[in-house]
Design brief:
The chain has 59 residues and is of the alpha+beta class. 56% of the residues lie in helices and 15% in strands. Strands 1-2 form a two-stranded antiparallel sheet. A hairpin with a 2-residue loop joins β1 and β2. 0% of the residues are buried.
């Protein structure tokens, strides 16, 4: 039984999360995380201060 559980957990197509009702697989989540890391390393992000300034413009 433990072997079966381990095999299921290791599958890349297992659903690990949902975004607005859309399932995200383990492989898909890993891809999204790697893309986010690239954006952060490239400076493509908002700081808390940037967000505060931006939110002041909201009605």
């Amino acid at each position: 039984m433990i072997n079966s559980l381990a095999n299921e957990y290791a599958k890349e197509d297992n659903i690990v999360a949902y975004r607005t009702g859309k399932p995200i697989s383990k492989a898909g989540l890993y891809y999204e995380l790697k893309e986010a890391e690239k954006e952060i390393e490239g400076g493509d992000y908002l700081t808390i201060e940037d967000f505060a300034k931006e939110s002041e413009k909201w009605d």
